[in-house]
Amino acid sequence: MSITKASIAFALVFTAFGMVNTANAAINGGAADVSFYRPDTGVWYSRSFKEPGAFRAVRIGSAADVPVPGDYDGDGYVDEAVWQPAEGIWLINRSSDGKQVSITSLKAGKDAVPVPGDYDGDGTTDIAVWEPATGEWKIMLSSNTAINARPMVINFGRKGDVPVQEDYDGDGKADLAVFRPSENRWHIRESGSGKTVTEVFGFAGQDLLVPGDYTGDGKADIAVFRNGNWLLINSSTKKQERFDFGFVDSIPAPADYDGDGTLDFAVYRRGMWYIQGSKGPEFIGFEFGGTDDIPIGSLRAKPSFVAV
Predict the structure, then answer these.
(1) What pLDDT score was predicted for residue 169?
(2) What is the distance between the alpha carbons of residues 47 and 40, in angstroms, rounded to a whole number?
(3) Which among 3, 97, 133, 213 has the fewest CB atoms less than 10 Å away?
(4) Which residues are within 8 A (CB) of 280 and not within 5 positions of it... i.e. 6 or more apart?
(5) Distance separating alpha carbons of residues 21 and 4, to the nearest angstrom
(6) Which strand (E) or helix (H) includes residue 204?
């Protein structure tokens, strides 16, 4: 089997606007909801992995906005959030108090890509963007509470790279990282040691990049989705592993749906979810969503090639 053009186009189109990060697998030990975003209405729908009955619906954003979910208030729950590229506004629906807030303090260029993540390790998602033209990461640290706080700016990467920020060294902080299509190489700056490590893995233009902690050791594994298969480098053993789970026309949507702290293999296909729990031989398939809806777990997937 092979990934369809539609699957690759999905990632390319949305990542071009910065759809690059997902609701983290398990935040503070909790399980990720099965969720999707309906762009034409701006409504987010979510339900429990094991409780198919009730679901939650929240309206935030519009068709022109980019979903950027994360735990922006540090309460251990994922907040619905969107980034408005034209204005550079972040709209966040805080789960802690139900209030919708907007953040305008982070200015970005017209080609900027949002790269939210917990860069300071305080358990709260920081708003951040990556500027492809300059390779600059602009990060508003949530731990910096000064009234006139300015973003932390770090140069890492270059035009044509794909940002793949995750916690690769297991220190609780998101590491700056990019995939360089011209080399099929991952470049990772470890926040713990400050060292930059590289790894050749994947094929530009063929794979979708899906890094995350699939092995449960607290470190993100370098991983790709190809031909309905998941290929990864185990961060503990450094060995390559392969797991067959998916269809030709399915979209990878990994998250920690069973709440054990490890990402579960999952795909979305025309409104159908197929999830393989990491706790054991627990497989579940169900319908939730439509053909044009965007599964939140799929925001973790990035293209392995971008036009420059």
Answers:
(1) 98
(2) 20
(3) 97
(4) none
(5) 22
(6) none
Task: Return the percentage of the chain with pLDDT > 90, whole number.
Answer: 79
Contacts of 283 (CB under 8 A, 6+ apart): 274, 275, 276, 277
Secondary structure tally for the chain: helices H, strands E: 1, 25
Place of tokens 């702290």: 261
User: Measured between alpha carbons, how far is 101 from 91 in angstroms, rounded to an integer?
Assistant: 6
pLDDT at 22 over 50: no
Total-model pTM: 0.89
Residues 133 and 161: their CA atoms lie apart, in Å, by 10
Q: What are the CA-CA distances from residue 233 to residues 69, 215, 219, 224, 229 (Å)? A: 26, 10, 11, 9, 14
| Residue range 201-256, pLDDT digits in tens | 999 999 999 999 999 999 999 999 998 999 999 999 999 999 999 998 999 999 99
Question: C-alpha angle 15/77/178, rounded to 5°?
Answer: 30
Long-range contacts for 8-16 (Cβ within 8 Å, ≥24 apart)? 8/205, 8/208, 8/303, 10/251, 10/298, 11/208, 11/301, 11/302, 11/303, 12/303, 12/305, 12/306, 14/66, 14/294, 14/299, 15/113, 15/162, 15/302, 15/303, 15/306, 16/306
**Tokens of residue 23, six digits:** 């609701």
User: Which amino acid type is present at position 52?
Assistant: P
Question: Rounded to whole angstroms, how far apart are CA atoms 175 and 7?
Answer: 27
Tell me the average pLDDT of the chain.
Answer: 89
pLDDT at 307: 83
Q: What is the pLDDT of residues 182-201, one digit of tens each?
A: 999 999 999 999 999 999 99
Q: For residue 223, list its beta bridge partners.
A: 232
